[in-house]
Every structure is written in structure tokens, then in C-alpha cells.
Specification:
Layout lengths: L14 H10 L7 E3 L5 H9 L4 E3 L3 H10 L7 H4 L14
Parallel strand pairs: 1-2
Amino acid sequence: MKQPDGAYNYKGATEEHLKLMRKTCPPGVQIKAAGGVRSLDDMLKVRTWGVSRIGATATETILRDAIKRGFGPVPPHLLDTPSAGSAAVPAGY
């Protein structure tokens, strides 16, 4: 839960936990990082540990940063989207 100061009161998936899951699970098992992935850099880092799924409340922030860094074309529905937290979700998402 997000606190008044903007911090969260949980740690989320730690590096140690994620690496242990990848090490002990068969290659076909997807590892999900949930909690603690709040930026594009966080997401790219956990991908190097074998994480293939992300559970993040900062998805819009991560996508906007990826677009700014040139990771792909800008989806039309993000061109005029208001700031995080106030955007409507397009139909079908």
C-alpha cells in the first residue's frame, strides 16, 4: 500500500528471491517480479535475472520511459493521454 510520503510498506520481490526462483524452476516456468518494479531500469534489471513477467502498478510510467528511450513506436492512444493515474483505459485492454 502506498504511504502518504509516496513510499510503499512492502519490499516486493527481491533480487535474491527472483534469482533463487530462476535457479530452481525449470526453464519453461515463467518468473514474475511483483512489487518493487517501478521504473524501466528496474524492469530491465530483473529481466537480466531471468524474469519474464512483471506485476507493476507503474506500467504507464515504464511504457512512457520506454517510448522516450526509443524502444518502439508510440501507440496512438498514448499520444494525448493525461498524466499517470487519470488516463482512461482503451477498450479491449
